């Protein structure tokens, strides 16, 4: 960020944060700019360019008395007025830029302990002398020693880019394996474990860092940057939908909320019939699900696991007569601290790292954290290995290159990363299927102001579901919206709540009394993923009119449930914000409110970009996970889904990982 850009951002922060308590002084504002400069340095080039353009437009296209003026020359009230006009602008680009600037202001301000007393927020829930997670010693026992020039990597260890840098100084780090797995989440970790237990030499590449329980400090400023792609700033290409994806050993299972559901039978039946997932080579879903649920300790939650925010949904369902119930989770030893999306310092999540990747390493697999794959090496139709760069976890800087020679490659880099890597590798795609059919399960949320403190950030975030408007197969006429509790810590809530200045600060001052619910869409529409530059991904997705109407229906029901659960007022994260005082006002919520950039929308389940199926004309991989028309090249992650399942994808991703891993082991 240049000095001029820093000055513009400083003045924008001053306008956006006016009225907050405590109001940031000049020194604090300058500190905010320095912090954001470091955070922005970790973003992909195209995201930084977007911000640079937004700052330039803000500074040089501000009208004053019929002429253009500089934003930094305006009086404070005029600056706030001009920024507020961006929020309600008819131009998508201005609304998107406003949302981005407001999110940066919230990140800078609410990361600080000094902002928390005004909210009633206590911050991290563990004492400084917290007990060590039982698995911490297991992590340390598998830590690879710092590499020395000329040394060979010790198998059965986890190595980091920083530790491998000395080896990379003399040239690319060269490794040999029977199987190279790109990605270590719910798809890749089971593949690695199945192959390692079969006696194969396995190398696992993970672009993100290796975070142990000791690293989970429950702070948004550190954990959002560490656990999420693009520091939780990833979005669709038009910026209309935030796409939250994980990074690091364990992938999104490090930060997910532990919801476990099997794909509904009507959806599975469609996958079998329409995409040919039948026969001995296809997944045996019941057997795989049974094994995954046993290994992840999946259990239905108990009534005592329901926090105050979830009880709002329960009361709403009871009052309105809606269907729903308790959810099943993969957590063990949970202390209900409420920081699940920021990683668990007690390691109570039975996630991919704990349940599959560490066992894979103990069985002999070699893991490289901070190893970003650039391309799969192809020799005609056959995969021969993977090439890429080593990246320091803290700075994001490249510190070397690597080359893995392997008898087989399994790409498990997520439903965005996997198709981008395949396309970047020059994979023949005669039917244009790679990267298409993207499903996201996009969702919208609303905040309800309760009469008494809810402290919604405490306890298990999502324990209860409302299924009144979610149907599959013949029951789909009931609707395609799944309603759940939704809440976040201050930075996340500040980004969602509309407005700026004193109005935004007034809603944040009620933080203790806010409850949140969301509607997630089981969509019918599709998007697409392409490579973006040398390393990034481009996510193209827009709601179809039919899906927009269905999600609007879900949002209306969220509002009714909040009022029925005891809310005095409800705030919708539209631009500008929409504040409702009575449940009958929900009827006015329509498709126009869900147009691009008119409401804060998020997605956490990218899927279906490398479909599994028998026909190469409609799918990317065959029923064993092998890419059609290739040899020794496989995919295993949520990109294999044939369609959106309408439920959380994690147990299905684990099941497919086991299935593909065992197919690879049998082949090799």
Helices, strands, pairings?
Blueprint: H1 3-16, H2 26-40, H3 45-60, E1 62-64, E2 67-69, H4 76-87, H5 92-110, H6 136-141, E3 158-160, H7 161-168, E4 173-182, H8 188-197, E5 202-206, H9 220-227, E6 241-243, H10 265-275, H11 285-295, E7 299-300, H12 308-320, E8 324-326, E9 328-329, H13 352-362, E10 366-369, E11 371-379, E12 382-391, E13 398-411, H14 414-424, E14 436-438, E15 443-449, E16 464-466, E17 481-485, H15 490-496, H16 501-508, E18 514-521, E19 527-532, E20 536-540, H17 545-564, E21 569-572, E22 578-580, E23 601-603, E24 633-635, H18 650-667
Parallel strand pairs: 3-10, 4-5, 4-13, 5-10, 6-23, 13-24
Antiparallel strand pairs: 1-2, 7-9, 8-16, 11-12, 12-13, 14-19, 15-18, 15-21, 15-23, 17-18, 19-20, 21-22
Helix pairs in contact: 1-2, 1-4, 1-5, 2-5, 4-5, 5-15, 8-13, 8-18, 11-18, 12-17
User: Based on the structure given, which CATH architecture of the largest domain is correct?
Assistant: 3-Layer(bba) Sandwich
By CATH's scheme, which homologous superfamily of the largest domain applies? Answer: FAD/NAD(P)-binding domain
Report the principal-axis shape.
globular
Mean pLDDT: 94
**What is the CA-based Rg, rounded?**
24 Å
CATH topology of the largest domain: FAD/NAD(P)-binding domain
Number of domains: 3
């Amino acid at each position: 960020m240049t000095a001029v850009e820093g000055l513009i951002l400083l003045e924008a922060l001053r306008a956006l944060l006016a009225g907050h308590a405590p109001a940031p002084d000049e020194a604090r504002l300058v500190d905010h700019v320095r912090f954001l400069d470091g955070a922005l340095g970790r973003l992909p080039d195209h995201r930084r360019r977007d911000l640079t353009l937004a700052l330039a437009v803000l500074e040089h296209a501000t009208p004053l008395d019929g002429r253009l003026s500089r934003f930094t020359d305006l009086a404070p009230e005029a600056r706030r007025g001009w920024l507020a006009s961006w929020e309600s602008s008819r131009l998508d680009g201005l609304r998107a830029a406003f949302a981005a600037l407001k999110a940066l202001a919230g990140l800078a301000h609410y990361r600080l302990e000094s902002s928390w007393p005004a909210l009633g927020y206590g911050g991290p829930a563990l004492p400084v002398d917290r007990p060590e997670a039982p698995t911490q010693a297991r992590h340390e026992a598998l830590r690879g020693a710092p590499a020395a020039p000329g040394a060979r990597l010790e198998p059965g260890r986890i190595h980091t880019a920083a530790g491998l840098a000395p080896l990379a100084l003399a040239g690319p780090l060269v490794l040999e394996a029977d199987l190279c797995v790109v990605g270590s989440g719910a798809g890749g970790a089971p593949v690695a474990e199945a192959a390692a237990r079969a006696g194969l030499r396995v190398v696992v590449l993970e672009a993100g860092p290796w975070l142990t329980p000791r690293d989970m400090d429950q702070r948004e400023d550190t954990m959002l940057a560490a656990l999420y792609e693009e520091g939780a700033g990833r979005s669709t290409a038009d910026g209309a939908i935030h796409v939250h994806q994980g990074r690091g050993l364990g992938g999104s299972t490090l930060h997910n909320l532990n919801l476990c559901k099997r794909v509904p039978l009507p959806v599975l039946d469609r996958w079998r019939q329409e995409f040919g997932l039948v026969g001995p080579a296809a997944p045996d879903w019941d057997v795989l699900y049974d094994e995954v649920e046993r290994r992840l300790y999946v259990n239905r939650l108990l009534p005592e696991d329901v926090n105050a925010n979830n009880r709002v949904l329960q009361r709403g369902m009871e009052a309105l007569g809606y269907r729903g119930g308790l959810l099943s989770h993969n957590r063990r030893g949970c202390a209900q601290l409420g920081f699940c999306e920021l990683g668990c310092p007690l390691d109570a999540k039975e996630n991919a790292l704990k349940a599959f990747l560490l066992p894979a390493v103990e069985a002999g697999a070699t893991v490289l954290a901070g190893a970003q794959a650039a391309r799969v090496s192809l020799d005609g139709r056959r995969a021969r290995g993977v090439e890429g760069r080593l990246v320091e976890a803290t700075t994001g800087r490249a510190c070397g290159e690597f080359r893995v020679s392997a008898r087989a490659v399994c790409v498990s880099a997520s439903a965005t990363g996997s198709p981008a890597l395949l396309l970047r590798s020059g994979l023949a795609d005669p039917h244009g299927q790679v990267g298409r059919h993207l499903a996201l399960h996009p969702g919208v949320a609303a905040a309800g102001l309760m009469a008494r403190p809810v402290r919604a950030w405490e306890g298990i975030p999502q324990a209860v579901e409302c299924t009144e408007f979610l149907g599959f197969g013949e029951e789909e006429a009931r609707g395609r919206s799944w309603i759940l509790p939704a809440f976040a810590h201050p930075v996340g809530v500040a980004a969602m709540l509309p407005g700026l200045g004193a109005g935004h600060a007034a809603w944040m001052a009620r933080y203790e009394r806010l409850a949140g619910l969301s509607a997630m869409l089981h969509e019918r529409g599709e998007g697409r993923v392409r490579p973006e530059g040398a390393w990034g991904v481009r996510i193209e997705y827009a709601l179809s009119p039919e899906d927009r109407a269905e999600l609007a229906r879900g949002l209306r029901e969220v509002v009714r449930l909040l009022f029925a659960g005891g809310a005095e007022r409800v705030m919708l994260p539209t631009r500008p914000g929409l504040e409702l005082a009575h449940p009958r006002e929900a009827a006015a919520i329509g498709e126009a409110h869900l147009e691009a950039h008119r409401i804060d929308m998020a997605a956490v389940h990218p899927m279906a970009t490398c479909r599994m199926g028998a026909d190469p004309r409609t799918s990317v991989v065959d029923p064993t996970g092998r890419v059609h028309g290739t040899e020794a090249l496989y995919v295993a992650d949520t990109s294999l889904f044939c369609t959106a399942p309408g439920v959380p994808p994690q147990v299905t991703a684990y099941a497919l990982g086991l299935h593909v891993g065992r197919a690879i082991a049998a082949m090799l």
